[in-house]
Structure formats: C-alpha cells, structure tokens
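Anyone up for a design puzzle?
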C-alpha cells in the first residue's frame, strides 16, 4: 500500500508517517496544502491520499475533487478533526472514499485503511448512519437529467447488501454465494452504470433515488 499524506501540520505528518511505516506501509510523499497534494498525486500515483480538510492555498475538499477527477485510480480518504456533518457529506460528494476522525484508535484506523485498499468505504458505523440519514432525503435535482443504465437483478442484489451495510468483498461474496472476483465485477458495473466513483457514493445515490423500492 502506497500512501500520500496531505496535512498542514508538520508534527502530525511526522507522527502519521512513523505510524504508517511501522506497519510496513510506504509513504510516497507529504503535502502541506491541497495544491501540493494534487501535484504529488499526479507525480507519485499513490494508492491512497490521506487528506486533511483545512489547509492553506487549496483546501481538502477542492483537492479531493481535483484528484478524483484527474486520477480516478487514486483513492482519497479524508482524515480530519472536523466532526461537522456538512464536512462529512461534502467530502463524500466530492469523491472521497471515506471520512475518518483524527481521534480514531489506531487499530480501527488500520482496519479501515486495509478495507479502502480493497475498494471498501472507510466509514465508522456512526458516520455511516449519518450519511444514510442525510442522503435518504431526496432533492429535486436528484431526479433531473440523470438516467442511469438499468441494473441487472444480480447488481441490484449487490446494491441492496451495500445499503444494508455489507461492505467487504468477502462478506458480499458469502452472502451472494459467488467469488470475490465476481463481486468486484458486479461492483465495477454498478459504478460505471451510475457514473459514480466509489461505494459510499453508490449507497447515498441508491438511497436518495429509491433504486431499491
């Protein structure tokens, strides 16, 4: 796993780098603002960018949008002290694969990070509930001008399990009685058809638009 750290606090970056490297994770670069993070993402092609939200020059949300658009294979996980629900919602809308708080226990942090490497969203149970509650409220714009390709019956099964909270490839495979590679195939089709970037966005979109009614 190759990680880029984006945070404007040098001591925090040093501590996080040490923590990651102690677990055998390669840190490919450090950025003190969002603009540097975007540049380094293009130069180093990390697997994951750990993105702070409040940074000078270019903030974390803007940097997340740019990285998600320019480098879709790079996963962005917001790592912040902000417990503001609006920051959580905007981060996911901007393309973040997850939202983690800096007061997280290290064991849970690494468990969620490993999940991101497998394509799973990095969200604690409490934040996932907030996300679902927020996106369960449809808006007029949700139904305007966006008509996704029809999902197959099996893709709908995968989507239903995601909405219910089954997010790991292994659990999805066990529930569906198929291989993990088959699960990945269905997930890629769902993302392509809905024109979305990650599972967190898929869940929020499905709830907002009543795809499983």
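Challenge accepted. My sequence:
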């Amino acid at each position: 796993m190759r990680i880029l750290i984006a945070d404007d606090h040098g001591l925090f970056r040093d501590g996080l780098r040490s923590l990651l490297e102690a677990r055998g994770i390669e840190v490919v670069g450090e950025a003190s603002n969002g603009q540097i993070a975007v540049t380094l993402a293009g130069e180093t092609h990390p697997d994951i960018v750990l993105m702070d939200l409040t940074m000078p020059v270019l903030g974390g949300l803007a940097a997340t949008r740019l990285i998600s658009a320019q480098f879709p294979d790079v996963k962005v996980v917001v790592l912040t002290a902000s417990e503001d629900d609006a920051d959580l919602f905007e981060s996911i809308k901007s393309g973040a694969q997850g939202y983690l708080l800096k007061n997280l226990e290290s064991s849970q942090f690494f468990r969620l990070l490993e999940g991101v490497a497998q394509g799973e969203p990095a969200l604690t149970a409490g934040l996932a509930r907030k996300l679902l509650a927020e996106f369960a409220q449809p808006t007029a714009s949700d139904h305007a001008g966006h008509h996704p390709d029809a999902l197959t019956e099996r893709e709908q099964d995968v989507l239903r399990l995601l909405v219910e909270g089954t997010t790991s490839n292994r659990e999805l495979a066990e529930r569906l009685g198929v291989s993990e590679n088959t699960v990945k195939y269905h997930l890629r089709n769902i993302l392509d058809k809905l024109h979305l970037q990650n599972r967190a966005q898929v869940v929020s979109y499905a709830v907002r638009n009543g795809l499983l009614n």
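A detail worth pointing out: Residues 1 and 24 are 9 Å apart (CA to CA).
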